[in-house]
């Protein structure tokens, strides 16, 4: 006959200690194996709620947590050699990455404020560069794309379309030092076709042109242009015929 065993009516100590080790609610200080430190709220052994997390490398995050991720609103800072902290990012987070609206402070002095997605500048935002230039417009996964304005140190600015971090498409370039406006089409930061106009404040610029651009005075200028194109095409056709005859 099989030996009858009486069922257990007690919980082993290992199981009790394991349940007690699951972190819930507020803990004063929790240290990891790398000596990172977390102080804040827990739920089901995951960071959840409010808390700050300091890594051994000097990264400090203070803000909201959700299921172990930086999620909500929070700030990220870096510890300097003198013991103080320098702000790196403050704003919205989603699953550990900046997403939403936030400020970003770069080591080289650049500052960005605007929308983020998966840790990249995405959507409308403003970028103040350390060299004194400014960009205001739209971004796509970290690069300028869409409508935007770029202002140079000397006041000259470009307003128009961007793609892959370069001027691409229709746009306007204001030469504020000379008082002229350049309208046209750009391709990879190069203007391939444009027309020049005088702006209203040309005479108040730093180095205005000596004479304003004269207005168009030709009558039926478009018809004249079409006729000149037709005349030029006929001449080129005659030249091609003569070259073919010479070759034959």
Automatic annotation (TrEMBL):
<dbReference type="Pfam" id="PF02493">
    <property type="entry name" value="MORN"/>
</dbReference>
<dbReference type="InterPro" id="IPR003409">
    <property type="entry name" value="MORN"/>
</dbReference>
<dbReference type="InterPro" id="IPR052472">
    <property type="entry name" value="MORN3"/>
</dbReference>
<keyword id="KW-0677">Repeat</keyword>
<comment type="function">
    <text>Assembles a suppression complex (suppresome) by tethering SIRT1 and MDM2 to regulate composite modifications of p53/TP53. Confers both deacetylation-mediated functional inactivation, by SIRT1, and ubiquitination-dependent degradation, by MDM2, of p53/TP53, promoting a proliferative and cell survival behaviors. May play a role in the regulation of spermatogenesis.</text>
</comment>
<protein>
    <recommendedName>
        <fullName>MORN repeat-containing protein 3</fullName>
    </recommendedName>
</protein>
<dbReference type="GO" id="GO:0001669">
    <property type="term" value="C:acrosomal vesicle"/>
</dbReference>
<keyword id="KW-0968">Cytoplasmic vesicle</keyword>
């Amino acid at each position: 006959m099989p030996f009858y065993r009486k069922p257990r009516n007690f919980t082993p100590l290992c199981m009790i200690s394991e349940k007690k080790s699951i972190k819930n609610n507020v803990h004063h200080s929790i240290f990891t194996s790398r000596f990172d430190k977390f102080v804040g709220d827990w739920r089901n052994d995951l960071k959840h709620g409010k808390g700050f997390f300091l890594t051994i490398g000097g990264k400090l995050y203070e803000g909201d947590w959700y299921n172990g991720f930086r999620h909500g609103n929070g700030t990220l800072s870096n510890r300097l050699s003198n013991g103080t902290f320098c702000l790196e990012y403050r704003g919205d987070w989603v699953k550990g990455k900046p997403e939403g609206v936030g400020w970003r402070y770069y080591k080289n002095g650049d500052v960005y404020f605007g929308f983020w997605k998966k840790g990249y500048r995405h959507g409308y935002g403003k970028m103040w560069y350390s060299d004194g230039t400014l960009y205001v417009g739209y971004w796509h996964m970290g690069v300028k794309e869409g409508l935007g304005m770029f202002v140079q140190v000397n006041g000259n600015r470009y307003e128009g379309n961007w793609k892959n971090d370069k001027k691409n498409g229709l746009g306007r370039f204001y030469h504020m030092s000379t008082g002229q406006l350049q309208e046209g089409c750009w391709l990879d930061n190069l203007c391939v076709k444009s027309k020049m106009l005088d702006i209203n404040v040309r005479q108040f610029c730093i180095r205005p042109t000596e004479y304003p651009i004269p207005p168009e005075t030709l009558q039926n200028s478009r018809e004249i242009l079409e006729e000149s194109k037709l005349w030029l095409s006929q001449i080129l056709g005659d030249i091609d015929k003569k070259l073919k005859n010479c070759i034959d």
